[in-house]
Structure formats: C-alpha cells, structure tokens
Structure to design on (347 residues):
C-alpha cells in the first residue's frame, strides 16, 4: 500500500534532524537564554521527542518520528501535555500516549500543567506558556537533542495573517522559526491536509479538539479567515503567506544580528544621541528593545509603543520627561545622552 503523505511527513522529519545547525536561530530578546541542546545532528541513540496532543498534526509527527528513529538509530519519544482545560483532558492525553507507545516511541510521558486563570494575556497565551515550559523541562529530563512540534504550513500562514492584523512589524510577520533550541518544526512545508491524510493512510484516528471550532479563540477566527481567502481569491493564499514568513524571517535575522552588534559596541551607557541617531530606524527599534530588556523590562511586555516612545527622544525631542517601560525601567535624555535606568524616577 502506497503512503505518499506519510512519506512526505517522514522526509520532513528526516531533513530537519539532519539539518539542525542550518536551521538554528538564536534566542530573541523576548526569550530567556536557552543552552544549545542540539548537536550537529542527533547522534545514534540520542533522544528526540515529539510534542503530541493526539490531533492529526502531532499524531502524523509522532508516526513519522517513530519511522525515522527506527532507521536512523535515534530514540524517538513523546510528551503529551494535559492542560486540564477540558473535562476529558486527562483521558485525551492518556490515549495520545497510548497511541505513541503503539507506534514504538519510548520514552512516552503525560505531563499535567496548570494554566493560570484568569491570565492577563488570555487563556491561549497562558496555555502556550505552560506547554512550552513543560516541554522544555521534558527535554532536560530526558537529555533530548530536540523536541519536535507539529505546526504545519497552514499554521504558519495563520500566524503571518495574525501578525498583519496586529501590525506588529517584520518579526511578527516572520512567523514561527523552523528551529530554536530545543524546539524544531519539521512540518512548516507540510500542509494540514497532508497530516490528516497521513493519519488515514496509517489507520490512526486523531482527536478533534473542540476548541478548534470555538470562535471565541482568536486562532480559530484567523483559521477561518485564511479559509475564506482561499475560497474567494483561489488556492495558494496559505502557501504565499508561508513564503512571506520565510522571506521576512531572513530579513529580520539580519537586522537582529546588526542590532546585537550595535548594542555590544554601545557598551554600558549612557549613550550619545548623535551615535544612536546615525543608525536607521529599523535598527534602532531593535536596539531599544534590547536595551529595555537588558535593564530588566519583561520581554513579553515590551511593545512597539515603548520602543517608539524611546525613539522619539531622538527624533522628536521637545524636552519631554523619561519614557516609562514595563518592569520599572525608564529611558531619559539628558545633556545629549540617553540614560537607561531601573525605576521610574530619573533625575
């Protein structure tokens, strides 16, 4: 029996594990530093984990990892995160774990997390934060070379559209990275239809998350919007959005590297206004963000509103007072220099 879509999934996993260094991307200022867990490629016997919810994408990923691991000499495993957000969540996670064991994955574990309620950023963000923390801990616990995530090309397209709607800039438009240790996303060139077809080819029955049809979730509304665009404008919208992500990510990577070098060259401060003003705005935005985070501003709370206010100290100076940033950080201009201090009081 031919299994064309399963073969595509396997090829994607195999290519990702073979190219981890080429896909690697350093942590951004919005993230804590993570040690590089991925070697040049996983050595024989190395543990590679898949994050498995039981849905079609993650189930196809688990099956592909099991197939590749058996032939490449890796130990393929799985982590099934139970968010506890639905009445049957424990049973769903247990079934996903059972399917993974049936595919030959080992180790396989179910991890229960607590999602804060209420959460200032909403339940989706809270669940995502809890999930990634659990997966990172599992990677350390099992000394894993990588944790594979089942995000598809469709997910990438939706992420780009969401970034467009938010007006969040180039970094947001670049979508999800293919690899940022310890996480890798082999399926960013695989469609959701392919993962569903792979499960059908292999006789695997995926779990259908009821949240995926609940329009109160932003991601559900964005998913429907992409489907509407495909219907109204013709096929290829999702693929074009995903290509946009690749192009934007390459450009953003260059700007981020230049900003990191500039921050190093600037030193501890205070910073000459003339020196900062000499650089283009696209670079200064990233510099401001790095300076704020380095001074103690929580990365997840630093927005374009804060970096734009900082930049006006250079471009629209009218003697205004210090710019207050999250975490008790302030940016002030005094005597032709920019001062970054902890606390909102700047003399």
């Amino acid at each position: 029996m031919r299994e064309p879509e399963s073969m595509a999934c396997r090829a994607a996993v195999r290519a990702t594990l073979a190219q981890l260094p080429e896909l690697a991307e350093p942590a951004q200022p919005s993230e804590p530093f993570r040690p590089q867990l991925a070697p040049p490629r996983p050595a024989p016997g190395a543990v590679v984990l898949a994050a498995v919810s039981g849905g079609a994408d993650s189930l196809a990923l688990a099956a592909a990892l099991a197939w590749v691991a058996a032939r490449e000499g890796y130990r393929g495993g799985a982590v099934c995160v139970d968010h506890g957000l639905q009445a049957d969540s424990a049973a769903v996670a247990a079934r996903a774990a059972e399917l993974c064991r049936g595919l030959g994955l080992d180790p396989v574990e179910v991890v229960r997390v607590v999602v804060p309620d209420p959460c200032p950023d909403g339940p989706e963000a809270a669940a995502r934060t809890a999930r990634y923390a659990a997966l990172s801990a599992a990677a350390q616990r099992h000394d894993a070379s990588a944790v594979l995530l089942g995000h598809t090309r469709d997910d990438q397209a939706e992420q780009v559209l969401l970034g467009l709607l938010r007006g969040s800039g180039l970094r947001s438009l670049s979508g999800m990275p293919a690899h940022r240790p310890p996480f890798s996303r082999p399926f960013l060139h695989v469609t959701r239809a392919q993962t569903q077809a792979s499960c059908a080819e292999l006789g695997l029955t995926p779990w259908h998350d009821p949240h995926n049809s609940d329009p109160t979730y932003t991601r559900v509304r964005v998913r429907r919007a992409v489907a509407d665009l495909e219907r109204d404008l013709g096929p290829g919208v999702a693929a074009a959005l995903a290509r946009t992500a690749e192009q934007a990510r390459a450009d953003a990577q260059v700007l981020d590297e230049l900003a990191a070098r500039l921050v190093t060259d600037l030193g501890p401060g205070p910073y000459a206004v003339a020196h900062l003003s000499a650089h283009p705005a696209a670079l200064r935005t990233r510099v401001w963000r790095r300076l704020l985070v380095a001074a103690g501003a929580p990365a997840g709370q630093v927005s374009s509103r804060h970096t734009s206010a900082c930049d006006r100290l250079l471009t629209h100076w009218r003697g205004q007072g210090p710019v207050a940033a999250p975490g008790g950080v302030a940016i002030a201009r005094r005597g032709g220099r920019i001062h970054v201090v902890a606390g909102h009081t700047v003399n």
Summary: Residues 22-39 have pLDDT under 50 and may be disordered.
